[in-house]
Amino acid sequence: MSSLPLALRPWAESLALFPEELALHLGPFVARLSAAMGAMRPRGEAEGGEPQGYDGITRRGSFDRLLVSEWLWALEAPDELVRRAAYGELSFLKPAFRQPQDARRTVVLLDAGPDQLGNPRIAHLALLIVMARRAHAAGAAFAWGVLQAPPERGTFSDVTPSVLLSWLAARDVEPPTAERLAAWHEALALGDAPAESWLVGSARLARLPGAEKLSRIEVAEVLAPGERKLMVDVRPASRAARSVVLDLPPPDDSIRLLRDPFQSRVAEPVSRSGLPNATTFNFSPDGLRVVRFHADGTASAMAIPDSSTFTVPRPRRMKPQPGQTMLAAGWRSHGGLLTLMEREDRYILHGALKRTPPPADAGGPRVQSGWWKPGYVPELPSAIPAPGRLFSWRDRHGEVVLLLTRTGGLFLVYQVAAEHRVELVALDHPVTAMAMVHDKLVYVRGGSSVSVGSQLERLRSGPLTPSHRGKPVYVMPPTEDKTLPLRTTLHVVGVDGSTSMMLESREAEAFFGYVPGVAVPRDSGLLAVRHGPAVWRLFLDGAVQEMAMPLSFKVVGVGGCHMAPGEAGLVVLGPDERALSWFGAKGLHLLARASAPVVHAEVRHNAPLLGWLTRTGEFVLMNLLDGRVVYRATEEGP
Length: 638
Fold this sequence. Notes:
By secondary structure, the chain is an alpha+beta fold. This is Lipoprotein LpqB beta-propeller domain-containing protein.
């Protein structure tokens, strides 16, 4: 912050939180509000504390603390000593006291209601910086919170980027109420000395019962044509009021201060990948890549950037040969891009497998008819409505590649090494969500409960049932009992075996997600399953959270949100197909508005990342924990 004006240098440490261009706008707010607030009054000797020597010289005190030099007047000029005592000209040692840090405190409650939305919050931001530094200089504790929030959520003691982002998201449509002020008054004991309590908001706060004994700071916009100013009235409970008029920053910088004041102004993270427009995408099972399918039938795998300044390596790309169709693609963390192609007479797998588990005999799967119950046969692999996903997973026999189609069919991709032939084995249907969690394959299935683990074991030791099509696709029997009731089940397939459990949910649509700080089952992580047409259930560790979701919204994932830290919720696409929002127990929060209708959106299952693809080909990745766009690409047409 070496470029700060000399008058702002005392605030360099606090302003260093912000990009330099914003610090230059916020600095005058901080300096002028600090002058209007003044320093905290020092504690007098009457306030006591543990004695700790002397701290300077004062004109008042007892004669046992009179300076030795003053006693000379008693010897040389007694009348002068009397005169100096009468006029308060004698010098005394000033005692010092050790005062506990929490013996004094400053409490600030900010109005986040409709009266203060918009530009007034810029003054709130500057006031938090002023109050924090002011309390620290006086050795006092500092606590602040949002007046509309319940006191049970506690207060903040720091002014850091993460905390301020949470505050910026804490907007409320309701004005502050007397009941909420009374709750804060009781929770924080605002009437007890030596607390200094401030209410920050509009003049409406003065009319709340209980506010008359508290200090107030009233913030309002100057209503005059062409004026961009704020009027701030500082009204301490025991001193005269002071008013300050502040010039607002330019509109663009004001918006940045209110949305994300900690992101430097850089060029929009827009790049042209040189690839044809993407038609859909998915996150790889390990969460390290984004696999995209393009209009020319190709597939590409792109590294996921950590921030908007991350240099993204050139995507790995696979293009089908003439006569081939891209059925599915995936990313193997130890082996790169993996693709499955279809020709008229065969399937083609690009990517050598690591010791595929052998079937019952080396000649390929044996065939026996009459096992699969009619109605359970999954739809055969197809690129319609969109290519599927390949999962590379290692069990105790070696690498297993699984294909999950967009219609919910789950297949084993089996490669006969001796004949260079690829065959598919139908394992399960319908599978609605699938992920890799702690090196285990986890998926949700609607219908009778038979796990992939048991199917793979039967594949290694038992006969298979062929499909009716020419290409080698085989169907595994789910069970010999053809009367199992339909139900939604969660399956966890590990190296040492598989487990399954029935989910208390009436429908099978599901999503896996991630929220830091929320206790979730270790085997499956955060899981959301549709329970009814407008009801979703979130499966947490030892608890099930149920929430109603309007039918006009489309759920695209589950995860956390920077506007509600420590809470799990649904990520949804609005009826306009542009608004992406987070829906939790405390309502709906807008995350972003796409530049065009969204054709596909997805949440990464093991990290707080949301991706969406628009009809115009724009592809965006956004961090859910801070609301920042980390990648944006517009792709060239073919």
